[in-house]
Design brief:
It is a multi-pass membrane protein. With 1089 residues, the protein is mainly alpha-helical. Helix content is 55%, strand content 5%. A hairpin with a 6-residue loop joins strand 10 and strand 11.
C-alpha cells in the first residue's frame, strides 16, 4: 500500500467531468424546452385621448386579499350546500358583505369567479393583474425574487397620465414596481413569514383609512392583505383561524365601503385561490378559482338590472364551482386590466390580452366630440361612437371592445415583427380572419370583437412556448453521449480488472492507469470540441440564426466540447457497444430499472409513480432471493432471506405514508397528514382521503406524534446493533450514537412536535406563540448545528470504529472492528446528512426516514451475503478453494475478502436508487409544485431569510440525497484492510503468468466506490433521458405542463443531486481510506519492530 492516499485521483476527475457533461446537457435542453415569452417595452399612448374612454370614476381602490377563493365571497347556491362534505362553516358565508351589497344594489355591485393563469403564485399574478399578459412555465422560477416589470402596465399608465398611486401590504410589489408609487404613500411589509397571520393585514388597515379619509386621496390605492393566505398555508381553510380572518376582512371591507367617496371604484379580488389544504402554485380548479368583487357606491356600473338578458350569451360565460349547485358568472382574471383602465380613463396597457367585462360597459354614455379620422384606428373608433350615439346601450360596450380589440391587434402585430414573431405563424391566418370579421355593422361586431379577443388569448396560451427544437435535440444528444461514455468506462474497468494481461502489450494493467488514459482523452476532446464549436458558430452564423432561433457561440461550445469529449472517452462503435452489453441473465435482473425508465411515456404511469416504485422496489430483490435460496450454508440462507424479508416489511410500512396528486382522486387516501381542523367528521373524512396537502397546512397524524420521537431514540440503537455484529461498535461509534446522533434526531422531532401543538391549536398562540417560536428555532439550530458542525468536525478528526488490544508478553495485537474498518466509519459519515434531513422533515416523514435507514442496513447485509455466496461458487467452479480460506500472510478474514476486482453489479445498485425514490414519495412529496413543503423554509428563522430559507430544498431533495450518499456503503460495507506480503522478483515473474494480480484493499475500496458511482450515474441519467424524451415528444400534449414537464424537472434536479452526492461519497470514502491506511501502516510498523 502506498504511504499516502491522494485526494486528487482519476476517479475524482471522472466524477467532475461527468458532472460537467450533465450540466452542459441540462443547460442546452432547458434553454430549448422551458417556456419563454418576449417582453415588449412598447407603451400605449395617445395625446388626444382617442385610445381610451371618458372615465366613469376618478379614482380606484384595489384591495387584494391573497388567496381569496371564489367561494369565500359567493352566496348560495354558488357554493357547496350545507349538507355537502365540502361545505365549511369556517370559510363559507363568512365574508358576506360582497353578496349582501350585490343583492341590494345589482347595478352597482358585481361578483365574478375569475380564472388566474397558472402558475398561481403571487408574483406571477401581480404581473398578470397589472399588465394583462400571460405567465410562462419558467416564470415560477422567479416567484421568490421577481425583477422589475418592464412591460406597459396599469401602474405605469397611472404615472404617465399625471396621477398618483399608493401602496400598502405585500412587499412583492416593491420588487416589480420599485419606483411606481408615491414615495410618501408606500408601506411594504414582509410577505414570507407564513406564521405571522396579522402584521401585514394590520399594517394595511392602519394606513388605508387615513388615505381614504384625507382630503388628498391618491388616484389609485393598492392594498394587499396576506392573512387569508397565511392561514391557508399554516392550518388550511377548514380551521377556525380562517373563520376569524375572514370576519376581520368582512369588517374591514364594511368600513372601506362606508369611507368610499361617490367617485371611487372599489375592486376586491384574490390573486389566486387555494386548494383544500390551503396551498397554491399549480393549476388545480380550486387554485384557479379566485373571487372578484367590483363595487361603486353611487355611480351605477350598468344601466339595466336584467343585463344578462340583453348581452349576447357568448359574452357572458358561466362556470360551476366544485360541488356547487348552480353556475356563476366567470371571467379571466386579466380581464380586470382593460376594464379598470377604461373605467379610469387610462389607455389599455400595450401587452394586455384580457377582454373588457361586458356588464361594466352596458350603459349610455356621452360620446366624445369632433372625430377627425375615418380609417380604422383610435380616431375612427370615436367617430363610430358619435354616429351611433342614439343607439342602444350596446354602443358603450362596442366602443370599449373596439378599443380593446385594436390594442390586442396592435400588440400581436408588433410581436410578430419581433425576434420571436415566428411563434405566431401557425395561428396568424386564423387571427387575421377573425380580425377582418370585426369590420362589420355594430350589431354583428359585438360578438365578433369578443370572439377576436378571446381567440387571441387562446392562441397565445397554446403557442406561447418558445421551444427551440435544435437546442432540445442537442441536449438529448449530450444526455445519450454521457450515458454511453459512462457505460463504456464502467464496462471497460470491469474488463480491465478481470484480466491480468493487456491483449495488446501482454503486460499487467492497472485500472487507474486505464482510467487516466481515458481522462486525458476527455481533456483533448474538450479542447478540440471547444475549438470546433467556436469555429462552427462563426462559419454557420447565418444558419444558426435561421434554424437555431438565436443559438449563439456559447451554445455551440457547450455542445461540441462535452460531445467530442464523450466520443473520445467512449471510442465505441456500434459493434463494440453491443459487445459490452451484459448477458441476458443480467438484463433480466435490470427489468425493474427498464420498466421504471419507460413508464414516463405514459401520463397514467407518471401520475402513479409512487405506487409503481413501491412495486418495483420489492421486485428488484427477486434475483437476490434466488441467490439466497442456493446459498451453500443454512446460515447464509437465513441471513439473506431474513434480511430480505425485513427489507420488504420496511418498504411496505413506508408505503403506508401517502400524499396524493390531484389526478389520483378519488383512488388515493392521504395518510401523511391528519386534517384536525375540519369542522365535521364528514368533512374530515373527505379532506383526508382526497386532498393532496402540503406540510404547510395540515397536522401530523396521531401515530406520527408518538412514533417520531420514539424512532429518534430507537434508530441510533438499531444502527449501533448493526455495527455490533462485526464488532465495529468501537472507537468513535461508542459515543457517536448516544452523544451526536440521538440528541440531533430528538431535537428535530421535538421541533415538529411543538409545531404540531401550535398548528392543532392546543395552546393559546397569542400567549405562547413567541415562546414556542423561540424554542422551535433553538431546537432546529441545535439539531442541524450539532450533527453537521460538531458531528462533522469530530468525525473528520477521528472516524475509525476500531479498538486495539495488545497481549502482554506476546507480540500479538487484537483489533476489534477490523472486518468493517471501512464500512463503520462511513456509516457514521452517512448519519450526518441523515440527521440534517431528519431535522427538516415532518413527524410522519421522520418515521419513514427511520424505516429507510433500517431498510438500507438490511440491504447491505443482503449484498454482503450475496457476495459471499457468489465468491464460494466461483471458488468451487475455478477450483481455487484457497481464495475462501484465510491466508497466513494477511491480516484479513479470508471468507470476506476477494482477491480479484470488486464485483459491483448494476442490478445491485438498482434497489438503492429505487429506495431513494420511494423515500422521496413517502416523505410527503410528489413531482408537483403544490407538494413542496414551504413551511420548512422557516426552520431556522421565523421570517424568510436567505440563505437559511434553503432548508426547504433539504426537505424536498434530502430524501434522495441521503440515500444516494448511502450508496457508498454498498462499496465499503464489511470490508477490512488487506496487507499482502511483498513477493520476491522470481515469485513475481512466476505468479504474473499464472494468477491475476492481487488488488490491494485500498484499491478495492476506491474501485468499489467508483463502480457504485458509475451505476448511480447511469441509472439517473437514463431516467432523465426518458423524461426529457417524453417531455420533448409530448411538448404539445395537453398534460405537458401538468405532468411531463414537472417530472422532467424532478429528473433534472435528481441528476444534479446525484452528482453532488457522488462527490460527497468520494470525499467521505477518501477520508476513511486515508485514516485507515495511516493507522494500520503505523500498526504494522510497530508490529514488525
Amino acid at each position: 500500500m502506498s504511504s499516502s492516499i491522494r485526494f486528487v485521483s482519476p476517479s475524482l476527475f471522472f466524477l467532475l467531468w461527468i458532472f460537467f457533461v450533465h450540466l452542459a446537457g441540462i443547460y442546452l435542453f432547458t434553454s430549448g424546452f422551458l417556456l419563454t415569452r418576449l417582453a415588449l417595452t412598447n407603451v400605449t399612448a395617445c395625446n388626444d385621448g382617442s385610445c381610451t374612454l371618458p372615465p366613469t370614476h376618478k379614482r380606484a381602490i384595489v384591495l387584494i386579499i391573497d388567496s381569496l377563493r371564489f367561494d369565500f365571497i359567493a352566496p348560495a347556491p354558488y357554493i357547496p350546500s350545507e349538507n355537502n362534505a365540502e361545505y365549511s362553516v369556517h370559510h363559507h358565508l363568512t365574508l358576506t358583505l360582497p353578496s349582501l351589497l350585490t343583492d341590494a344594489h345589482p347595478r352597482n355591485s358585481f361578483i365574478f369567479n375569475s380564472y388566474p393563469d397558472p402558475p398561481t403564485v403571487t408574483l406571477q399574478r401581480i404581473k398578470g393583474l397589472t399588465t394583462g399578459s400571460l405567465p410562462t412555465f419558467v416564470d415560477i422560477g422567479s416567484s421568490f425574487g421577481g425583477s422589475e416589470i418592464e412591460e406597459d402596465s396599469i401602474i405605469g399608465q397611472v404615472g404617465m397620465n399625471g396621477k398618483e398611486a399608493a401602496f400598502i401590504g405585500d412587499d412583492t410589489w416593491m420588487n416589480v414596481f420599485p419606483n411606481a408609487f408615491h414615495v410618501n404613500m408606500t408601506w411594504p411589509y414582509d410577505s414570507f413569514n407564513v406564521e405571522d397571520l396579522h402584521t401585514v393585514d394590520n399594517g394595511v388597515i392602519t394606513h388605508l383609512f387615513p388615505l381614504l379619509e384625507s382630503g388628498n386621496t391618491p388616484d389609485l390605492i393598492i392594498g394587499h392583505f396576506l392573512g387569508v393566505d397565511h392561514v391557508g398555508h399554516r392550518v388550511g381553510p377548514y380551521h377556525h383561524s380562517m373563520h376569524s380572518k375572514l370576519l376581520q376582512m368582512n369588517a374591514t371591507l364594511t368600513r372601506v365601503v362606508d369611507s368610499l367617496s361617490d367617485d371611487t371604484l372599489l375592486v376586491v379580488l384574490g390573486d389566486h385561490g387555494m386548494d383544500r389544504a390551503g396551498d397554491h402554485g399549480g393549476d388545480g380548479q380550486l387554485e384557479t378559482s379566485a373571487g372578484v368583487w367590483i363595487y361603486s357606491k353611487s355611480i351605477p356600473l350598468c344601466d339595466d338590472e336584467k343585463i344578462s338578458n340583453k348581452i349576447p350569451s357568448q359574452l357572458l360565460p358561466y362556470t360551476t364551482f366544485p360541488d356547487a349547485d348552480s353556475p356563476h358568472r366567470y371571467i379571466q382574471q386579466i380581464d380586470l386590466v382593460p376594464t379598470l383602465s377604461l373605467l379610469l380613463g387610462l389607455p389599455i396597457p400595450f401587452g394586455n390580452l384580457g377582454t373588457v367585462i361586458p356588464e361594466l360597459f352596458w350603459r349610455q354614455s356621452n360620446p366624445p366630440q369632433n372625430p377627425t379620422e375615418e380609417s380604422w384606428g383610435w380616431g375612427s373608433i370615436r367617430k363610430t361612437a358619435v354616429k351611433d350615439e342614439d343607439r342602444s346601450r350596446a354602443s358603450s360596450l362596442i366602443r370599449a371592445l373596439r378599443l380593446n380589440a385594436l390594442q390586442i391587434h396592435t400588440y400581436l402585430d408588433t410581436y410578430r415583427l419581433s425576434s420571436s414573431g415566428a411563434e405566431l405563424d401557425d395561428a396568424w391566418l386564423t387571427l387575421e380572419s377573425a380580425w377582418n370579421g370585426t369590420h362589420v355593422d355594430e350589431e354583428l361586431a359585438l360578438v365578433n370583437l369578443w370572439d377576436y379577443t378571446r381567440l387571441a388569448l387562446s392562441s397565445c396560451r397554446s403557442i406561447w412556448a418558445q421551444f427551440n427544437p435544435l437546442l432540445m435535440v442537442l441536449g438529448l444528444v449530450l444526455f445519450s453521449a454521457s450515458l454511453l461514455s459512462t457505460y463504456s468506462v464502467y464496462s471497460g474497468i470491469g474488463k480491465v480488472t478481470s484480466s491480468h494481461l493487456d491483449p495488446a502489450t501482454q503486460t499487467t494493467v492497472v485500472w487507474e492507469d486505464w482510467l487516466i488514459a481515458r481522462m486525458w482523452q476527455a481533456l483533448r476532446g474538450l479542447a478540440a470540441g471547444s475549438t470546433l464549436g467556436f469555429l462552427a458558430s462563426l462559419t454557420y452564423e447565418t444558419q444558426l440564426k435561421t434554424f437555431g432561433k438565436g443559438m449563439d457561440s456559447l451554445d455551440c461550445i457547450l455542445f461540441m466540447a462535452p460531445f467530442v469529449s464523450c466520443v473520445m472517452v467512449g471510442k465505441l462503435s456500434l459493434s463494440k457497444i453491443l459487445g459490452l452489453l451484459p448477458p441476458m441473465s443480467n438484463i433480466l435482473k435490470t427489468l425493474p430499472f427498464v420498466l421504471h425508465a419507460i413508464s414516463f411515456f405514459s401520463n397514467s404511469f407518471t401520475f402513479w409513480e409512487d405506487r409503481i416504485i413501491a412495486f418495483l422496489l420489492p421486485s428488484s430483490l427477486i434475483p437476490h432471493v434466488f441467490i439466497g435460496l442456493r446459498a451453500p450454508t443454512a446460515r447464509l440462507r437465513r441471513r439473506i432471506l431474513g434480511f430480505t424479508g425485513l427489507l420488504v416489511v420496511c418498504i411496505r410500512l413506508m408505503a403506508v405514508s401517502t400524499v396524493c396528486r390531484e389526478e389520483q382522486h378519488p383512488y388515493c387516501h392521504v395518510t401523511f397528514y391528519s386534517s384536525l381542523s375540519s369542522s365535521s367528521a364528514l368533512e374530515s373524512t373527505y379532506t383526508s382521503t382526497v386532498v393532496p396537502p402540503s406540510a404547510s397546512s395540515s397536522s401530523a397524524p396521531t401515530f406520527a406524534v408518538i412514533g417520531a420521537p420514539l424512532m429518534a431514540i430507537l434508530l441510533p440503537i438499531i444502527l449501533s446493533r448493526c455495527l455490533k455484529q462485526s464488532k465495529s461498535d468501537q472507537g468513535l461509534a461508542t459515543v457517536w450514537f448516544n452523544w451526536i446522533m440521538t440528541p440531533s434526531l430528538f431535537c428535530g422531532s421535538v421541533y415538529w412536535l411543538i409545531e404540531y401543538v401550535e398548528t392543532a391549536g392546543l395552546v393559546d398562540e397569542s400567549e405562547w406563540g413567541a415562546v414556542l417560536r423561540f424554542c422551535r428555532t433553538f431546537l432546529s439550530r441545535a439539531a442541524l448545528g450539532w450533527s453537521v458542525v460538531v458531528g462533522g468536525v469530530v468525525w473528520w478528526k477521528h472516524p475509525l470504529c476500531i479498538s486495539i488490544e495488545t497481549s502482554e508478553g506476546q507480540r500479538q495485537i487484537k483489533i476489534l472492528g477490523f472486518a468493517n474498518a471501512y464500512g463503520a466509519p462511513y456509516m457514521l459519515f452517512w448519519t450526518i446528512p441523515f440527521s440534517a434531513v431528519w431535522a427538516t422533515t415532518q413527524l410522519t416523514g421522520q418515521i419513514v426516514l427511520g424505516l429507510s435507514a433500517i431498510a438500507l442496513m438490511s440491504y447491505l447485509e443482503i449484498i454482503d451475503g450475496i457476495r459471499d455466496v457468489l465468491m464460494v461458487e466461483e471458488a468451487f467452479t475455478s477450483n481455487r478453494l484457497s481464495d475462501i480460506l484465510p491466508s497466513g500472510d494477511d491480516f484479513a478474514l479470508g471468507a470476506t475478502q476477494n482477491n480479484h476486482s470488486p464485483n459491483v453489479k448494476f442490478y445491485e445498485i438498482t434497489p438503492v436508487i429505487l429506495l431513494a425514490m420511494h423515500l422521496f414519495f413517502r416523505t410527503g412529496h410528489q413531482s408537483t409544485i403544490p407538494s413542496i413543503q414551504w413551511k420548512s423554509s422557516f426552520l431556522l428563522t421565523s421570517t424568510l431569510t436567505y440563505p437559511w430559507a434553503g432548508t426547504f430544498i433539504i426537505n424536498t431533495l434530502g430524501p434522495i440525497w441521503v440515500i444516494l450518499t448511502g450508496v457508498g456503503l454498498v462499496g465499503v460495507w464489511l470490508k477490512g484492510p488487506r496487507f499482502s506480503s511483498v513477493p520476491s522478483p522470481k515469485e513475481t515473474q512466476k505468479d504474473s503468468q499464472q494468477s491475476p494480480p492481487v488488488v490491494s484493499a485500498d484499491d478495492q475500496i476506491q474501485l468499489s466506490i467508483l463502480l457504485c458511482s458509475l451505476c448511480v450515474s447511469m441509472y439517473l441519467m437514463t431516467i432523465l433521458l426518458t423524461t426529457s424524451l417524453s417531455a420533448s415528444i409530448l411538448r404539445r400534449h395537453l398534460m405537458v405542463w401538468k405532468v411531463f414537464a414537472p417530472r422532467w424537472i424532478l429528473g433534472t434536479v435528481v441528476v444534479l443531486v446525484g452528482d453532488v452526492s457522488l462527490l460527497m461519497v468520494y470525499v467521505g470514502a477518501w477520508q476513511v481510506r486515508r485514516v485507515v491506511e495511516r493507522t494500520f501502516s503505523r500498526m504494522m510498523g510497530q508490529a514488525l519492530t
